[in-house]
Design goal:
Elements (H helix, E strand, L loop, with lengths): L13 H4 L1 H4 L25 E5 L5 E5 L11 H5 L11 H10 L1 H21 L4 E9 L18 H15 L2 H11 L12 H9 L4 H16 E5 L5 E8 L2 H59 L3 E2 L2 E2 H36 L11 H23 L5 H55 L1 H34 L7 E5 L13 H29 L8
Antiparallel strand pairs: 1-2, 3-5, 3-8, 4-5, 6-7
Length: 536
């Protein structure tokens, strides 16, 4: 409808504005300006003369500028109504939408058709996820492993990121391609039109090209990322079949573990190889040092047994024998003195130092007779003949005990003398051997120096030998601490493309937006070109 707020000086009444709308709309030919339909645009700040008609309709007649006024610019000639953009209202927008309804419907239909065609022909994608804990600290199988562990968290995160990069590396993917034979799978080895074009001009290796195509296709379908503030890595794999996606995910995890194990084994192998190369030189040094020791011993007449000089061993053994003989001598002397004191005090019957089978028998008889004498004293009295006979027998036993004690004393005296003679003999031998050891002192000092050098070189050689063998065995042990906490499961639905209904709705919304935008752009173009339809 006609608005009073629009400038009447511009000569745009409601009849002229909707004239084209009533005539049945416009077309793309309306965008081309014609000579006959050039509107008369009054220049700015030019007064107009109002004429009253009989139908009470106001008609503004612009005053024609004089020929001496300047001509409009090129932009003004091409877009004569560009200065009227601020006067566009809701009526104009509605008119433009109604005028471009055919474009809106066409865009809507084409977008819905394209969405339906894509939903029918698009290759489905089924995505699976696998959660893996990548612990930066390896399993502590040996106490002094080849690889050290850094306790700092930043360094641990860097190690996890490095292993995350290995998870999607070409080595891991190549293992998967070889294991699952993806080079012959049509899903992964599809030749592109560019490959066919290259094959026309240059001969290519079919197997290599298929493996390269499979590598590219598989790398596009694999993605790995680390969860924030954790050592958990999420592996994302998609394929055209749910079961194949699960198989690919499991194969990638196995290839990842195998790659880490092989990398650690190769590193340990290099260390073991370097140690083995060093062992030959260390073995030669030990052999030369031990040969010097033996040559010096032979030249100085120094015999050795079990790595020690015979003179030193003999001196040590003699000293030990002297100590033992001295201990036996002291024991024999003490026993003899105790026996002598017991005999002098008349305690041969009760002293425990007198020990023999005969002495034990005599003591038992004496004790039994003492008990009988005590019993008879209570029964018969002091003058009974049996009591007198028992006392006489007791005196005989006591005399026998004294005689046995003297015999044991004589034997102890003989043992005491024999031990003293043995001690004196051993002391003499020990003193003689000490003099022999002191005479070889200077030679022993030099010999110990040579032996020390040989032992040091032998210890280094043995350490390197044990380390080389340990690292060689370490190659066969997998110490990587990789654990799968959530294995891939077959998905219930495809991840791409979305369901057909969602695609159709999205296509309809997109087509509607494109049609509306095209209609508004076409209307705005006509407006600034002065082709806005007017009402009849």
């Amino acid at each position: 409808m006609y608005r009073r707020s629009e400038p009447e000086e511009q000569g745009l009444g409601p009849e002229r504005r909707f004239e084209r709308l009533r005539s049945g709309g416009g077309s793309l030919l309306d965008l081309v300006p014609t000579v006959d339909e050039q509107p008369v645009v009054p220049p700015e700040n030019v007064p107009t003369v109002r004429h009253e008609s009989t139908s009470a309709r106001a008609v503004d007649t612009p005053v024609v500028a004089k020929e001496s006024e300047p001509r409009p610019s090129a932009v003004g000639e091409l877009f004569p109504h560009i200065h009227m953009l601020g006067s566009i209202g809701v009526d104009e927008i509605i008119a433009w939408l109604c005028d471009g309804m055919r474009w809106i419907v066409l865009a809507l239909v084409l977008s819905v058709a394209a969405a339906f065609a894509y939903a029918v022909t698009a290759t489905p994608r089924y995505t699976v996820y696998t959660d893996i804990v990548v612990d930066p600290s390896n399993l502590n199988v040996v106490s002094d492993d080849v690889f050290t562990t850094n306790p700092q968290r930043d360094a641990q995160l860097l190690e996890v990121e490095s292993k995350l990069r290995i998870l999607t590396s070409r080595n891991v993917l190549q293992r998967v391609i070889d294991k699952l034979e993806l080079a012959g799978d049509p899903e992964f080895a599809k030749p592109s039109p560019l490959d066919r074009l290259k094959a026309l001009f240059a001969a290519q290796d079919g197997k290599a090209s298929r493996e390269l195509a499979a590598m590219r296709a598989l790398s596009e379908r694999v993605e790995a990322r680390r969860e924030e503030r954790s050592f958990v890595v999420v592996l994302k794999v998609w394929s055209e079949a749910p079961a194949k996606a699960v198989t690919l995910s499991d194969a990638i995890v196995e290839a990842f573990e195998a790659e880490l194990f092989q990398s650690a084994a190769e590193s340990a192998g290099r260390v073991a190889q370097n140690l083995n190369a060093r062992l030959a030189e260390l073995r030669q040094n030990v052999t030369e040092a031990e040969k010097k020791v033996e040559d010096f011993r032979r030249a100085n007449g120094l015999q050795s047994a079990n790595g020690e000089l015979v003179s030193n061993q003999l001196s040590t053994e003699l000293n030990t024998q002297v100590l033992d003989a001295q201990q036996r001598f002291i024991q024999a002397e003490t026993r003899y003195k105790q026996m002598s004191a017991a005999i002098a005090e008349g305690q041969t019957a009760s002293a425990s130092v007198f020990e023999s089978a005969n002495m034990t028998n005599l003591r038992q008889q004496l004790n039994a007779l003492q008990q009988q004498i005590g019993s008879m004293q209570l029964t018969y009295g002091e003058r009974h003949p049996r009591l007198v006979a028992a006392r006489s027998e007791r005196a005989t036993l006591e005399a026998a005990i004294k005689e046995e004690a003297r015999r044991i004393l004589e034997r102890a005296k003989a043992d005491f003398g024999r031990e003293r003679e043995a001690l004196d003999a051993l002391r003499g031998k020990a003193d003689d051997e000490k003099s022999n050891v002191f005479t070889d002192n200077e030679a022993q000092v030099h010999l110990r120096d040579l032996e020390r050098d040989a032992r040091t070189k032998a210890a280094i050689y043995e350490t390197h030998l044990a380390r080389a063998q340990q690292i060689t065995e370490r190659q066969q042990i997998d110490t990587t601490n990789i654990r799968v906490i959530s294995r891939a499961m077959p998905p219930n639905s495809r991840s791409w493309p979305p369901r057909t209904v969602i695609l159709l709705i999205g296509g309809a919304v997109l087509g509607l937006a494109i049609g509306v935008a095209a209609a508004l752009a076409l209307g705005l173009w006509r407006f600034v070109r002065g082709r806005t339809p007017a009402a009849g």
